[in-house]
Amino acid sequence: MDSMTVTTPDGARLHVGVCGTGPGVVVLSGGPGAVHYLESDELAPQGFRAWFPEPRGVGRSGGGPHTMAQAVADLEEVRRAAGVERWTVLGHSWGSDLAVRYALDRPEPVVQVVGIAGHGLHKDRSWSAEYEAGKTADPGPDIAWSPEVHAALQESFLDWIHEPGLWRSLADSRVPMAFLAAGVDIRPSWPLAQLGELVPGGRFETVPDVPHDFWHTDPKLWGVVVTAACRPS
């Protein structure tokens, strides 16, 4: 795994892992506010040139708490610095939701969105109750994160999903979007199924018998799944 540093217009220095050759894919990890736990040659889609930007204010990236709009702007700075015209946006968990935001805000450079085990664009009590009930049985891997960045992005996410035109923009989007649920995730998958139905080029699938963090429990399967999902259908 190689790396590059991208300096944003406001002076933040962003760490970006880089590996592989082929069409471009930017890989977004979850959190929000977590270090980039997917930055690994083994976890990268094969046959692609993959970039792994660590969010500003987290881990090896400078800066601090920020909004989703700033996160999208940072991704564009990474794309320009990498010299990529268009790329697939692959996100896991929170990264899936950010990938959708990126595709709606900046559709021109997005070949497709691949969202895996995302939350979905909602704040639903029944979803949260089911998720909380399963947390003790599925603690997941220990991942470093920034509480301040997490809180700022959660607030920005709520502002975004309350925007009046959000669902109209999803229904009008020309960007193909694939949403994959983890079969034994404690996170209910119905929001992803809804997105797959709503987006004109959308689809929804389930990866059977895997937990939310199957990149950690079964990295070989993760590699197979993301490679297949990133290839043109």
Automatic annotation (TrEMBL):
<dbReference type="InterPro" id="IPR029058">
    <property type="entry name" value="AB_hydrolase_fold"/>
</dbReference>
<dbReference type="GO" id="GO:0004177">
    <property type="term" value="F:aminopeptidase activity"/>
</dbReference>
<keyword id="KW-0645">Protease</keyword>
<protein>
    <recommendedName>
        <fullName>prolyl aminopeptidase</fullName>
        <ecNumber>3.4.11.5</ecNumber>
    </recommendedName>
</protein>
<dbReference type="InterPro" id="IPR005944">
    <property type="entry name" value="Pro_iminopeptidase"/>
</dbReference>
<comment type="similarity">
    <text>Belongs to the peptidase S33 family.</text>
</comment>
<keyword id="KW-0031">Aminopeptidase</keyword>
<keyword id="KW-0963">Cytoplasm</keyword>
<dbReference type="InterPro" id="IPR002410">
    <property type="entry name" value="Peptidase_S33"/>
</dbReference>
<feature type="domain" description="AB hydrolase-1">
    <location>
        <begin position="25"/>
        <end position="134"/>
    </location>
</feature>
<dbReference type="InterPro" id="IPR000073">
    <property type="entry name" value="AB_hydrolase_1"/>
</dbReference>
<dbReference type="Pfam" id="PF00561">
    <property type="entry name" value="Abhydrolase_1"/>
</dbReference>
<keyword id="KW-0378">Hydrolase</keyword>
